[in-house]
Every structure is written in structure tokens, then in C-alpha cells.
Amino acid sequence: MIWTVTVNPALDITYGVSELRPGQVHRVHDVQVRPGGKGLNVSRVLAALEVQTTATGFIGGHAGDLFEQLLGECKGHSFIHPAFVRTNHETRRSVAIVAQNEATVLNEAGAGLTEADFASLTRTLSAVGNSDVVAISGSFPPGNSDYLPHIVKTVKQAGGTCIVDTSGPALLEAAKAGADILKPNHEELADLTDSHDLQRGIDFLLGAGAGGVVCSRGEDGFVAQINHGERVRVAPPAVIAGNPTGAGDASVAALARGAARDGLAAAQDGTVLRKWLVDAAALAGAAVAAPVAGEIVMDVYDRLLHAQA
Ligand code: TA6
């Protein structure tokens, strides 16, 4: 089973405008509302590929009720087993304003969670099995990022494979806790090591305890290394125009599916890791082609996948 953990999910509101002019009044020509957050978007992309996942994290309040309702109605919902922990805090919103193939994203911080909330999540994750893959993706509410290492250790103690997509100090803490794959983007990696030398960043996180690092570089694709295995670079075969929000989530979906199918150790072999990254590049491009985060355009996915064959 693949699990996704979204500690800070969001009601994703996507506004389409013809042009974004700060300080001006805009007429929104399209509104989309979806259950979002990086981890749930991983589940939604995998659902589009008919891969079952269990989605957990925290939801609450009226926004949490709407989140739950929309999750039950979204494309592929039958492939997503919801196991969210209800809290007293209102689920936040994330607004993406899309104009001329560019997204301006406004992410609310989310409400702080309690020890009891995280104890409930730990109980939920006690069902993780030793062949399961767990993707922990997205931000943590203010004051809660210290819980990330605990979640990583809970997954590892259950024998699961842990993929973490986060940023800032939490990235290093996840490495120290033994996360199996970290998926920073190149800016997040540069911030961590104060250097644009990506290999230096990868070596730093591997040395800190991470099992592997997959660094996403937008239109330049990925550079990755699992343990002391071969370093692999993959560039997408084409640049897709569209809404870039959710592309990173789609790449995490590819890594989770690869790890569940082949096992983490197999990706020390550059051939296997390249297969994962080619899939990640194709899914990321298919996500950009979709109007909202968490969805993919299958025709674009197929075209990008076969262009790299
Ligand atoms: O990557 C896109 C997205 O998942 C949006 O759906 C929105 O929920 C946002 O990112 C949340 O990002 P954050 O880093 O705040 O968890």
C-alpha cells in the first residue's frame, strides 16, 4: 500500500484571469475548488493511474467538511482510502491565480496542531506495513515542523519506505531521521547548503542520513542519487505550458509508485532510478497541462513517456 500524509492539507481554489495586475480589480473567468495539499495531490495523481492509496493527515471545521465532500466526488476517488484525523482547527485554503500559463499562489499558513492531534496520526500510521511506501508532502502549520522527524521514525519503525517532500530546516531534520528519499527542488537544496552546487547539496543530505535525494529542477528535470548508487540526471523531452502548481506532487507520485513496485534498494542501480525519473518527468509535464493541481492530462503523460523511451 502507498500512503500519503498531508499534515497541512488545503482547499485549493484556482482562479483563472486573463492578466494579473496587482492593485487592480480582476474579473475571474474560471473558478475551480479541489481538495488539495501536496500529499493528497500525490494520492489524486496516483488515483488517475488507478493506483490505490491511503490518504491521511488532518482536516477540520467547515472547510474540512467541504474537503471531505469534494474528496468523495473527485476523479478517481474510489482509489483513495481517506483516513484523515479530524481536528478542531479549520482546514486552510490555498489560492492559485492562473494567468497566461503562470500561477501566483497564496498559501494560508494553517492552524497549529496539538500533541493529541499528532498522537492520533501516530496511531493511524501504526497500520503501515513493512512493504508500504509513505509519502509525507507539504508544509506543516506554524510551530509544528518539529513533528516531522517523529512521523518519519514512526514510518521507519513500521518497516515502511518514507519519501519526504518539504523544505527549509525540516528537510535536514527529515534526513537526520532517516527519510529514504527527500524530494527538494533546486532552490530548496541551494538554500540548505548556501550553494548552487546540487551535488554538494545531495551529498550533504545523504551524509546527514537520507537514504536518497531526488532534486527537481523545473524545466531542467531531475538529478538524483539513492544511497551510494549511481547519480542520474533526466531532462524532460519537452516543456509543457500550463499551470505549474502540482508538478512536484506528480513527481512524488512517480517516486512512490516506483518504490512500491521495485523497492528502494533497486534504485541504487542507475537504470532503475532513471526509469523512475523518466516517469516523474512525464507525470510532472502532464500535471502542468492540467488546469488544477492534483490532476494530470493522460495524453500528455503518454506522449512524454514515449518520447523518452
Ligand atoms: O503543490 C501544489 C500544492 O499542493 C497546492 O495544491 C496547495 O495545496 C499548495 O501546494 C500547498 O503547499 P504547502 O507547501 O503550503 O503545503
Major sheet: size, sense and barrel closure? Answer: 7 strands, parallel
Termini separation = 28 Å
Spans where pLDDT lies below 50 across 5 or more residues: none
Bound molecules: 6-O-phosphono-beta-D-tagatofuranose
Could you report the average pLDDT, rounded to the nearest whole number? 96
Q: How many strand elements?
A: 14
C-alpha Rg (nearest Å): 18 Å
**Helicity level:** 25-40%
Number of helices: 10
Structural class: alpha/beta
Shape: globular
Query: What are the secondary-structure elements, in order, as H or E?
Result: EEEHEHEEEEHEHEHEHHEEEHHH
- Share in β-strands: 15-25%
Can you put this structure into words, describing what you see?
The chain is α/β, with parallel strands linked by helices. It is built from 10 helices and 14 strands. Strands 1, 4, 5, 6, 9, 10 and 11 form a 7-stranded parallel sheet that branches. It has a 4-stranded mixed sheet with strand order 3-2-7-8. Helix 1 (38-48) packs across helix 8 (247-262) and helix 8 (247-262) packs antiparallel against helix 9. The mean pLDDT is 96. The chain binds 6-O-phosphono-beta-D-tagatofuranose.
